[in-house]
Design a protein that fits this description.
The structure is a homodimer. By secondary structure, chain A is α+β, with helices and mostly antiparallel strands. The first copy, chain A, has 16 helices and 15 strands. Chains A and B meet through α9, β12 and β13 of A and α9, β12 and β13 of B.
Chain lengths: 458, 458
């Protein structure tokens, strides 16, 4: 693979994504400024043992040009109380936020502040300074250890990390948020350290199997069930790839093989599909001969890491509801903007007026007798007979169309707190071509891609 | 149960079905005449050790008034050759047939003659006179032993047999031919001998379970898998109820319970359902909201015991074919007159234009690669993606309507020799209301009863 064309390709990619010296200098300047501000404010508050630290890809030189993210951690002594940390951490961060273009307080395990500061997207996060990653008091305490490990081991492979990150972005597997369920930045760094180069990661991944196990320090202590296990070098119990879904794992394998067959710039920078107009979409959907049903409701006001797991739960519950009533689902997906849409593609949106309801075997006297009493002479029965040794009652189908089923039973589905209350506040069912009339460019793109995103149907 | 109303009911039934003295005398006269003729002809042919015997219900006084069936067996010495028996047996029978109104030669294990003789339906059947039913040379050799056993054990219970036979006729479980798969005459006699009376058979059957085992002589030697096992008192290896289907077994149990709850004349002599007119049928079928498909072809010229097993095989094969192509079948039945009809009731007669074709898991490199090569860029592909770890190709469905599927693939189904060649000679597919236009009163009755006959869908 190490030929001229490949070298040229890498250079062409790096040309686009590797920060130029002046961009690097500017980032360094802002980061140092912020660190000094934190330490100054802490000092002026009379706090002892508080320091600030730049962490994340900015600190490791593995950031892609144009992504101006800074993660500044305010490190409190390991024996500080949680209240102290939260109170003082916020006080410091708010003080800095006074000079920002805009900011908001966010909540993970404890509160932190995200701000727009001189063109940078800055997180100022309080954490505890602990002895090792094994005795962290809060999930964010782990980050400084990751930072140390990567800085000590990356050994000039920073551009390989950049290439891998961009490749993963291009093939849509980058990002460990619950919406994406792909590869985190830290995970790409560990993969490059493990395999030694971008191209070695690619060629190795072509032969990955579910259960692939990577343990740089050979210190893993527990079994993991995930597709890919990369033991955290700073915590033997933790799988850095735990958030990676089976399909993103497979998409990456698939993309690596594609890359080896024909390494092109398109894989790093895919051309975006032109959104189709309404007429084209309707035409495309009609040609499939399936039935489309969309459930739409106002997107609840929660962060994506809360929203997406709930949407996933909702999709599972809706599919189970429909299948319980004998509908056959081909594909299901969700899209979220101002509105949220659960899109279902069915073999058919209607079913016969009757349903075969099987009773017990005829020879189970008591049970079959009470089944017979209930149904044989019921007013609305279609037929009653014996088939394969059991009584069968042909009863009216309660929901002969999927619309009536969803209208009556959707709110009873298990969907997670915020999504459930959003649905209960009101939802709409759209069918067929009406779905294409939702006016949102991103939604139209979602439709144009249908069903090429990760599906949950077995 | 032994009350006045019940006695009256029994008398009312017997009044209709018990032969009057003059009918009995007439039957006896004709039977004796035929026996004398057989023996006279045998004698004049110079045959030694040949005798004639009246067997079956006529010989046992268990025949229902109006059924004028006579079974005359020509018994050859047990050491006669098969050729002798066939040649001489037919010569004798043909001689008698010369005086009949009409006759035809039929074939079971060996040839025999069926004739219309002075108003009677007469079978003249050659058989071997063997020492015991365990060493028979041909299936018919068993009959004389059955005759002896019943005559020696029925002990005045003949009217109970008449009642049971009529009850079974009324509830449609009488007859052991392969079309009916119900109870044979001999089986009803054994049940009455076992339980001691008509009413005892009824009340015992209410609690029958699959595997019910009756062995009058306690001499059974092998295991049987059928629902009801009645060991032949003349052959320890044979189950007299082997031809009884699970559903006829269950229908009998069900009817016995019904009888105990309310013993009425209707159960013995059910009112026949008025056939619906075309309009009523169409209305009834439409209200079910299902899709009806009929396959029709000229009925092959074979006896019912050959035809019905082949139709059963055909139904299984057609259901399997349709299910393989993702159609869902609710009910299937067959009817035979001049034409034969296989009637299928489906959830829907059409399916989407596409079909999800699942490939191997992505990590099975070689297999998944060749799947991908074949489908990913195929011209007519709808979509290609990864779902639950496997590649999925959305390919055009070859048979998006059941009509096209049957037209192209029906003749490849495994259907038995004569039915298969009848279908290959030409078949028609009728859909929906066109089915109701088949002009045959019995077929209309079949439709009016739909789907109340025995079905083969699990």
């Amino acid at each position: 693979m190490e030929n001229d064309a490949f070298k040229e390709l890498k250079e062409a990619v790096l040309e686009k994504i590797s920060p130029k010296p002046e961009e690097r200098a500017h980032l360094k300047e802002i980061a140092e400024l912020l660190i000094k501000k934190v330490e100054y404010i802490a000092c002026s508050m009379g706090l002892k043992g508080v320091s600030a630290n730049l962490v994340g890809s900015a600190a490791r030189n593995t950031w892609i040009s144009g992504t101006h993210d800074l993660d500044i951690f305010i490190m409190f002594p390991g024996n500080a109380s949680r209240e102290e940390l939260e109170k003082n951490g916020l006080t410091i961060a708010r003080k800095i936020a006074e000079e920002s273009e805009s900011f908001e307080e966010r909540y993970a395990e404890h509160p932190y502040i995200n701000m727009r500061y001189r063109g940078f997207d800055v997180d100022i996060v309080p954490c505890f300074r602990v002895e090792s990653a094994a005795c962290i008091r809060s999930a964010v305490d782990r980050t400084p250890f990751h930072n140390e490990f990567v800085k000590n081991n990356i050994n000039g492979l920073e551009t390989d990390v950049l290439l891998l990150k961009q490749f993963m972005k291009g093939v849509r597997v980058y990002g460990s948020e619950l919406r994406t369920q792909g590869f985190s930045g830290y995970l790409t760094e560990l993969l490059v350290i493990k395999y030694g180069s971008f191209e070695n990661v690619i060629s190795s991944a072509c032969e990955w199997q579910p259960g692939t196990y990577i343990d740089l320090n050979s210190h893993g202590t527990i079994q993991h069930a995930e597709s890919l296990i990369v033991v955290d070098p700073t915590d033997p119990k933790r799988n850095v790839a735990a958030a990676l879904s089976l399909d993103k794992f497979c998409m990456f394998i698939d993309s690596c093989r594609k890359f080896l067959l024909s390494p092109t710039l398109d894989l790093f920078f895919p051309k975006s599909l032109a959104p189709m107009n309404e007429k084209e979409l309707i035409q495309r959907f009609k040609s499939r001969g399936t039935a489309f049903i969309a459930i739409t409701f106002k997107t609840p006001d929660v962060v994506e890491d809360v929203l997406y797991p709930q949407l996933y739960k909702m999709k599972l519950a809706v599919v189970a509801l429909l299948e319980e009533h004998e509908y056959r689902i081909l594909n299901v997906g969700s899209w979220s903007g101002k509105k949220t849409v659960i899109l279902l593609e069915l073999m058919s949106a209607t079913l016969p007026a009757l349903r075969k309801h099987r009773g017990p075997p005829v020879w189970v006297h008591k049970h079959s007798e009470s089944f017979k009493d209930k149904y044989e002479n019921a007013e609305d029965i279609f037929a009653f007979y014996i088939e394969n040794g059991t009584y069968v009652a042909e009863v009216p189908r309660k929901y002969p169309d999927v619309n009536s089923l969803l209208k009556e039973r959707l709110t009873l589905c298990s969907m997670g707190k915020q999504v459930s209350s959003a649905v209960k506040n009101g939802f709409e069912i759209l069918q067929g071509s009406d779905i294409c009339s939702i006016q949102d460019m991103d939604f139209k793109l979602f439709l144009a891609n249908w069903p090429g995103r990760s599906n949950i149907i077995q």
